[in-house]
Amino acid sequence: VGSRHRGEVVTELGPEEVRWFYKEDKRTWKPFVGHDSLQIELTYRKLCELNPGKASEQDEWEELGGSGGDSEGVEGQKGQTEASVSKEVAGPAEEIDVDSIDIGVEAVCVRGGLYEVDVKEKESYPVYWNQQERIPVMRGQWFTDGTWLPLEEEDSDLIELEHLSRFRGHQMKDTFETEAVTQQWTARMVTIHSLKLSRSHVDWHSVDEVYLYSDATTSKIARTVTQKLGFSKASSSGTRLHRGYVEEAAPEDMPPAATHIVFVVHGIGQKMDQGRIIRNTSMMRDAARKMEEKHFSDRTTEHVEFLPVEWRSKLSLDGDTVDSITPDKVRGLRDMLNSSAMDIMYYTSPLYRDEITRGLTKELNRLYTLFCSRNPEFEEKGKVSIVSHSLGCVITFDIMTGWDPVRFHHQEAPDAMETEQRRRGCEEQRLLEELHLTRMRLRDLEDQFQGLKTSSSRTSPPLKFKVENFFCMGSPLAVFLALRGIRPGNNGTQDHILPRSICQRLLNIFHPTDPVAYRLEPLILKHYSNISPVQIHWYNTSSPTPYDQIRPTLLNPLKESVSVSDSESLPSPCTSPPQNRRHYGESITNLGKASIMGAASIGKGIGGIFFSRFSRSSGRFITVCVCVCVCVCSVFVLSVELDRRIDFELREGLVESRYWSAVTSHTAYWCSHDIALFLLTFMYGPNTPNETTEDNLDS
């Protein structure tokens, strides 16, 4: 029994001493935090009050006067231990007969609002996603020494009933015993009470010295041998039990309310395993929790929550048409392809694309509305980010931007009518002209309709929330955009592909060997194909450089350095200078120097017009012309750099096989602590108050 009980009188356990547990992985029981455990226990006691237990068994137990006595008397009365002690403890100490319950209680919200507990069924289930298997929960009253894991609830209830019937009102020990005294006392301690369970038995040596012994044959033999060697029964084979959890449940023991939610959108392959995105999101959430504790423990008023978005299972698409036309040979491989890669073909099909985008939009809005209904303050103050994987990046992007392939076709497709008119004879010219005018009128009407549709979509965007950050993981989005005609520009902002009015920041995360992932930055500025993506920090890096302060680096080395003396061999201003490639890690500053030298030669070529006319003039005028060209060109080069980086690359392992990594890298994002810390870094943002304080201290 814990030290907090010493000097106290044995009574029923208080709600703060009981601890509720859940078993999510089917292996070990995990304790609920103090706040959740208190809420479950209070609801459980309310359920007991509304639905009293078997009164007849309680009366029978009271007539028998409890168990009392020594171990032999108790072991012979196994049936008596299955009843209640008295009406006073019928609530918390009694195991409720579920079938006799008529009056229910509300479910208890636990684990940061992600789950609810059905106290009657003693099960937990998620709120925001579907899960076939319920999570069992149990009420812990007696716990094993060291691990503080709860005993099985049936055994725990019997031990608690027996303990109260035998020791109610008894005084616990007032003083702490030294280790030597405890060992001497343990060697000669006598069993004052005993209880027989199904596969074990419990001995009381005092009011707070309780031991559990297994009744398996091997345990009995070992116990006999050790006792003959002079060891006590308790020290040789017993497990000490504690009544009440090691930590009392406190109402303030709870995570802060979510201030930032992250919708996690899956890509292809969800049809094969509908629970995969739930497990992947759980792994990402667990990794983020560890990173929060390590790096953001001071953010006590902020909390990031991850919610899986499963959109594939609710779509009907073609039904079973594709399955019906699939040959039987190598059926397993074909079914795998139908359940995974076929999603790409569905999305590129004009027949099913709208169903997919509507399905994901509906699910995102449903989750957001449900979350706001359960967290009323979030809609006003909270932020929303999206993490998408693989094809999910493309679908999410199209939903946010409202991309319409039909409108794109009308804008980009050539006018086939003009080509057709050239092929026809003069006798058909009049009819073709009338047909052409009719089609032009139809196109005008379609454009007007699209304009109305666009204006209405702007007033009511498809998503009910504004996206703060859009994280793409293993994304083929760049390929889709390139095939839609997106070409590099010269403005250096993400607005070229995703306006900030729709999403504040776009971040493209990929593994260097992921065969599905592509870069986005070269679609904004072409020369960024020669600039390496930003390396994501290891999660255990001490004092890493902030990502927005990392200077760009070139990919491959220059074969020859550029200098002023080499200006004669630089390319003519009439041709584009070649884009030389440099080492990883070489500063973009050197590129700027090379650009200035190239600009000098360009200026020299442009100034050739002046050289031929004013070759005999003073050199000062020539120098001024060249300097002006150098300044203008260098300013232009600097002005087309990205204002904020978009491509971020995971670091390769030192002993990682690139061929094996190419197979596994596309699904390796979920459990990465590096990515978890990366996500949190951008969602929490810089800790401005702490930085300001440190700067003041330094000054």
Automatic annotation (TrEMBL):
Residues 563-573 have a biased composition (Low complexity). Residues 55-91, 563-582 are annotated as: Disordered. Residues 463-685 form the DDHD domain. It comes from the Eukaryota. The keyword Oxidoreductase does not apply. One of its GO terms (cellular component) is cytoplasm. This is DDHD domain-containing protein. It holds the Pfam family DDHD. Belongs to the PA-PLA1 family. GO terms for molecular function: metal ion binding; phospholipase activity. Keywords: Membrane, Transmembrane, Transmembrane helix. The chain crosses the membrane at residues 621-642. It comes from Astyanax mexicanus (Blind cave fish).
